[in-house]
Write a structure and sequence with these properties.
about 5% strand, Rhopdopsin 7-helix transmembrane proteins, two-stranded antiparallel sheet, mainly alpha, about 80% helix
Length: about 325
C-alpha cells in the first residue's frame, strides 16, 4: 500500500500559514506589551509622588529661566539708559547679556519641555535646530567671557597700552568673532551631518520618521521619543576645544596674570604706605628736635652778653661800688 505524499505546494502553503500565524502572534504580543507599558507609564505619571516631583521641577526650571530673562534684560536696559555706562568695556557685558538671554529663550525653554514631559514633541527638524541653537549660544557666551578676560588684562596689567589697543575697531572685531565662530561648530556641521556617527546617519536614512528621534526604554516607558545629539570623535574634540578648552585656558592665563599684578600693586602700596609712615615719624622727630634746639638757644646767652661778662668793670665813684655790693650807706 503506497502512501501518497502531499505535493510541495501544500507543504509550502502550510509553512506559510504557520509562519503567518506565528508572526501575527508575535505582533499581537508586541502590541499588548506596548499597550501594557503605555498604560503603566500613564498610571505612573498620574501618581501623587510623580505629580509633586514634576511640579517642583517645573517651578525650579521656570524660575531659572525667568531669572535669566529678567536679569539680562535689566543689564541691557541699564547700559542703554545711563550714558556713563556706555564705555567700551560694557559693550562686552551687553553682548554677553544678549547671548545669555538667547540661551534662556532658545535652549532652556526646549529643555524645560523635555524635562517636564519626558519626551521630545517637536519633530526631527526642530531637534536639529534646538541642538544648533544650544551649541551656538552657549559657545558665544563662553567666548564673550574670554573677551572680557583679555580686556581686563590690558586694563590692569598694561594700562598704558590699553587705549591704543582696545579701540572701538578692536572691540568690534572681538565681538564679531565671538558671534561668528560658534556657527562653525553648530549650524554648519549639524545640518550637514558632520557631527554624528555613520551608524546614526544610516539609521536616519533608513527610517527618517522614526529616528527623528531615537527610541529608548526608560523604566516602564516603552517608546519615549527623545532628541538625541550623538556626536563622533572629531566633532567632539573640535567642538569642545572651541567652546571650552581654548577659552578656558585663555581665561586662566589672563586672570592669573591679573592676580599677580594685583599682588604686586598691593605690595607696592604697602611699601609706599610704610615709607610714608616712616617719613612722617622722621619729620616729627626733626621738628621736635628743632623745637628743643630753639628753646635751648633761647636759654643761652648771646655772644655780646658773654663779652660783657668778660669786660672788666670800672666804677667811677665809691658810691657806685657801694651800691653794687649792697652797701647803701
Amino acid at each position: 500500500m503506497e502512501v501518497s505524499e502531499p505535493p510541495d505546494e501544500d507543504v509550502d502553503r502550510s509553512i506559510d500559514s504557520l509562519s503567518t500565524t506565528s508572526g501575527i502572534e508575535r505582533l499581537s504580543e508586541s502590541l499588548n506589551s506596548s499597550v501594557r507599558d503605555t498604560f503603566n507609564a500613564s498610571a505612573d505619571a498620574y501618581q501623587p509622588a510623580t505629580i509633586i516631583w514634576t511640579a517642583v521641577k517645573g517651578v525650579v526650571i521656570i524660575s531659572i529661566i525667568v531669572t535669566a530673562l529678567v536679569g539680562n534684560v535689566l543689564v541691557i536696559a541699564s547700559v542703554r539708559r545711563h550714558r556713563k555706562l556706555r564705555v567700551p568695556t560694557n559693550r562686552y557685558v551687553v553682548s554677553l547679556a544678549a547671548a545669555d538671554f538667547l540661551v534662556a529663550v532658545c535652549a532652556m525653554s526646549f529643555n524645560a519641555s523635555v524635562e517636564l514631559t519626558g519626551q521630545w514633541m517637536f519633530g526631527r527638524v526642530m531637534c536639529d535646530v534646538w541642538s544648533s541653537l544650544d551649541v551656538y549660544f552657549s559657545t558665544a557666551s563662553i567666548l564673550h567671557l574670554c573677551c572680557i578676560s583679555v580686556d581686563r588684562y590690558y586694563a590692569i596689567v598694561r594700562p598704558l597700552e590699553y587705549p591704543a589697543i582696545m579701540r572701538r575697531i578692536t572691540v568690534t572685531c572681538m565681538l564679531g568673532s565671538a558671534w561668528l565662530l560658534p556657527a562653525l561648530i553648530s549650524f554648519i556641521p549639524i545640518f550637514m551631518g558632520w557631527y554624528t556617527t555613520e551608524e546614526h546617519l544610516e539609521e536616519l536614512r533608513k527610517n527618517p520618521q522614526k529616528i527623528e528621534l531615537k527610541r529608548r526604554r526608560v523604566e516602564r516607558v516603552s517608546v519615549t521619543q527623545v532628541c538625541m545629539f550623538e556626536v563622533n570623535r572629531p566633532y567632539a574634540v573640535i567642538s569642545s576645544s572651541v567652546s571650552f578648552w581654548i577659552p578656558g585656558l585663555v581665561m586662566i592665563v589672563m586672570y592669573c596674570k591679573i592676580y599677580k599684578e594685583a599682588v604686586r600693586q598691593r605690595e607696592a602700596l604697602s611699601r609706599a604706605s610704610s615709607n610714608t609712615v616712616l617719613n612722617s615719624v622722621h619729620m616729627h622727630r626733626a621738628s621736635t628736635s628743632r623745637h628743643h634746639s630753639r628753646a635751648s638757644h633761647q636759654l643761652l646767652l648771646h655772644p655780646s652778653d658773654a663779652s660783657d661778662f668778660a669786660r672788666p668793670v670800672t666804677y667811677r665813684t665809691a658810691a657806685e661800688l657801694n651800691v653794687e655790693n649792697g652797701d647803701l650807706y
